[in-house]
Specification:
2 copies of one chain form a homodimer.
Chain A: H1 12-26, H2 33-39, H3 45-51, H4 54-73, H5 84-103, H6 110-121, H7 124-149, H8 156-174, H9 176-183, H10 190-216
Chain A binds a DNA duplex through helix 3.
Chain lengths: 217, 217
DNA sequence: GTCTATAAACAGATAGAC
DNA sequence: GTCTATCTGTTTATAGAC
């Protein structure tokens, strides 16, 4: 008579997980509520019951992403105590982790996939994810960048340079079909990802160097 | 009795133009054939008649894009005759042109918008656009890059570096909502685009420098 | 909270007149 | 080549039994 033996667990969470996965794989418009209900082993009407409709499920997915990611942010702490060299190294580590997360095991990472779809779509979901994730992440990274280069904090140049670095990573994920065709890579494993990572890290170091010189002149 | 006075011009081209615009604005799945027919001032059944269906229209749009872009490629000619300095300068010009095209007048540029959607979607359309556009463009740019840096032609490093540069530009377009929120830019005019362009060109120069040193060691 | 049944609107496609 | 009319299937949403 344990509580977890009861047959009818709420379908709330399974629906969010299925929505996250299917919206990410095929896009919001190409995914039907029937597919989601089937994948979540739930009834179609459960979507309306729990979330008020398909759009409600989308927003619930976004809130789930924001909540999940907020717990990750604590990683970027104690930035003030670092030397410029440490800050540069930490930037490299973060970029490296981003590359590994986005390019390796592309099928398993539902949250990045969902986020990338919504970034391109650029609608209400950004209002949920932006203040809870992008803004704090960008602020932390900006502090690291400032620490590493000596540039003015919160200047447009710092933020844009940061976006340029992140953009390279995002692009290799979003346009991976094109990249892999051009390079004639059949499959993408750790070796290929390592090659991409080293290019991006080289660019990061080069950009940091230029930024340092620029701020010390 | 001039020929262009006849009431019934073919709806073939208007349908492609409407498809290009609407697929680009809202995505393929979110656009209905009725919307397209309305926008093209044509009958719904004209889509089946001319293209065999909605998917046929999508491919016809892709072929139209490929055809339009092929004429642009002639710009990149006579690369072999350039000095390294000229090659680097030409790369800067091309990147600059790409920034201007993608970031300025975002609502008017239907072809880039359609292409960006299809890049993310990554299906059969790429088979049409890739060999006719991306591959020749990338080959020409690779030659410029090799000329500018002295790196090995057709090495993975050259192609990936190139993708990294292009990726920054694409990212600023695809994720412009996020970038502009972070920078608190209300609208994006020539001044803002100029700022983005200078960051990207600075990165390009820094990357070229590093690549040059790497190949001469 | 979950189910069945069904409503109401919409999708893409097509037959056939002109 | 374009039109009207309609078919067939699917979509999201909901009413109501349990």
């Amino acid at each position: 008579m344990a509580r977890n033996e009861q047959k009818s667990k709420s379908t709330h969470d399974p629906l969010i997980n299925a929505g996250l996965r299917l919206f990410g794989e095929s896009g919001y418009d190409a995914t039907s509520t029937r597919q989601i209900a089937l994948a979540a082993d739930a009834n179609i009407s459960a979507i309306s019951y729990h979330f008020g409709g398909k759009e409600g499920l989308r927003l619930a997915c976004a809130e789930n992403v924001a909540k999940t990611l907020t717990t990750t942010i604590t990683t970027f702490a104690a930035i003030e105590s670092q030397t410029p060299e440490e800050a540069a190294l930490e930037l490299e580590h973060i970029v490296s982790a981003l590359v590994q997360m986005l390019l390796l095991q592309p099928q398993a990472k539902t949250i990045p996939q969902f986020m990338l779809r919504e970034i391109v779509q650029a609608e209400e979901v950004l209002d949920i994810i932006f203040p809870n994730f992008f803004e704090p992440i960008h602020k932390s990274l900006s502090q690291l960048w400032v620490r590493a280069t000596g540039q003015d904090a919160n200047s447009d140049a710092v933020m844009l340079s940061l976006f340029a670095v992140v953009g390279q990573v995002i692009y290799f994920r979003v346009s991976r079909e094109i990249v892999y065709r051009r390079l004639k890579w059949d499959s993408v494993g750790p070796t290929e990802v390592q090659t991409v990572e080293s290019i991006i890290l080289t660019n990061l170091r080069a950009t940091l160097e230029v930024a340092k010189k620029g701020s010390s002149q």
